[in-house]
Amino acid sequence: MRRSLALALAVLLAGCGRMIPEGQVPRPGTPAPPITQPAPQQPTLPPPPLPTNATPGPGVAALGIGAEDARTALFSFRESCPQLLRRTDQTGLTQPTDWQAACADAVRWAPTDAARFFATHFETARIGDGRAFATGYFEPEILGSRTRRPGYEVPVYMVPPELVRDWHDDIAPAERTGRAPLGRRDASGRFVPFYERSEIEAGALANRGLEIAWAADPIEMFFLQIQGSGLLRLPDGSLMRIGYAGQNGREYVGIGALMRERGLIGGNTGYATSMQGIVQYLRDYPNEGRAIMRKNRSWIFFRELPDPDGLGGPLGSIGVPVRRGSSVAVDPAYVPYGAPVWLNLDRDVADGLWIAQDTGGAIRGPNRFDTFWGNGGDAREIAGGMSGRGEALILLPKGTLARLGRR
């Protein structure tokens, strides 16, 4: 799902409050609340030293992992193993060889005895202070069509061929360090930033055959871009799954925080600081809403993914499907991809064992997690209301902490 760019719903809302009861929302056509300038964005965290600081936790058997929880986690762990056995762990905690025994046993282990699998192969560790904060994300389903037709006018674009990484001409060769930025070459051959959202909406990519589908609702498509993948319900009732393929290189702005700072939602505005409140405002004030959405200059390009009918899921950052209730996005600088994660939160629905298979642009720090809830109405409701705090433990192959001198 490439959550590094496709941010979870909670990223958009960032600390939303309760819902406003029905009947307190102003009627369409009333004057829009006043606009004020947003506060500057906070700087991102620097990368941690390697290896990540980890201290021993309780034994896995003491966690009391439930049978069904362990079964679904074992399934997701199996799917992660090919990546575990060949990826470099950014945290510095593990090596591919550390995972060999667990991955070899995972293939043949009986799912009905999955809790014993994790107790046999893993030890727990706290990363930092182990105090967790978890949000939720989901796979939205919106109306769409493979071809343009009345009622389906919002383009879903593939990656344009001119979107490339290169260096701006005014940057000296000696200063060209790190990863080159995304952009394009203009008619004169100069490297310039790629088109931003407002330019793309105005037709910068139109009529070039780049459309893989057409969506019915621009607001729903905007939120699907934030999620990074989703399902299009086609006119014949079938489903088309689309997933992240690229991004235009322009800056992402979370409109939920922007709207709060401008006094458009929350307080006495009549619009809740929730996805429902944001969407209601955007629909009630379409002109102002369009301008707000265009403050997010980022644009996500998509590709069609196989298996839209529920046998799999959207792909996470390590290229395996993310699964409802068992896949979690982490900061891979602190938590190894593929590692089991135990959460014990004040939101009981998210308690239990998860597998680190994804990441996100706002998922930063040793104990920041984003839980995946699949698709459908309840997924949207659970993910949208997920904001849990508590304890996190990372499960590492037995012997890892001793090798690192942490025991």
Give the secondary structure arrangement, pairings included:
Blueprint: H1 9-13, E1 54-56, H2 67-84, H3 100-108, H4 114-121, E2 122-127, E3 131-137, E4 141-145, E5 154-157, E6 164-165, E7 182-185, E8 191-192, H5 197-201, E9 211-215, H6 218-227, E10 229-233, E11 239-247, H7 255-261, H8 275-284, H9 286-293, E12 300-305, E13 327-329, E14 340-345, E15 352-358, E16 368-372, H10 377-384, E17 387-397, H11 400-403
Parallel strand pairs: 3-16, 4-10, 13-15
Antiparallel strand pairs: 1-2, 2-17, 3-17, 4-9, 5-9, 6-7, 7-8, 10-11, 11-12, 13-16, 14-15, 14-17
Helix pairs in contact: 2-4, 8-9
Description:
The chain has helices spanning 9-13, 67-84, 100-108, 114-121, 197-201, 218-227, 255-261, 275-284, 286-293, 377-384, 400-403; strands at residues 54-56, 122-127, 131-137, 141-145, 154-157, 164-165, 182-185, 191-192, 211-215, 229-233, 239-247, 300-305, 327-329, 340-345, 352-358, 368-372, 387-397. The chain is globular and about 60 Å long. The protein is of the alpha+beta class and 407 residues long. The strands form three sheets. The protein has a six-stranded mixed barrel with strand order 3-16-13-15-14-17. A six-stranded mixed sheet has the order 5-9-4-10-11-12. The chain has a three-stranded antiparallel sheet with strand order 6-7-8, with no helix packed on it. Residues 22-55 are annotated as: Disordered.
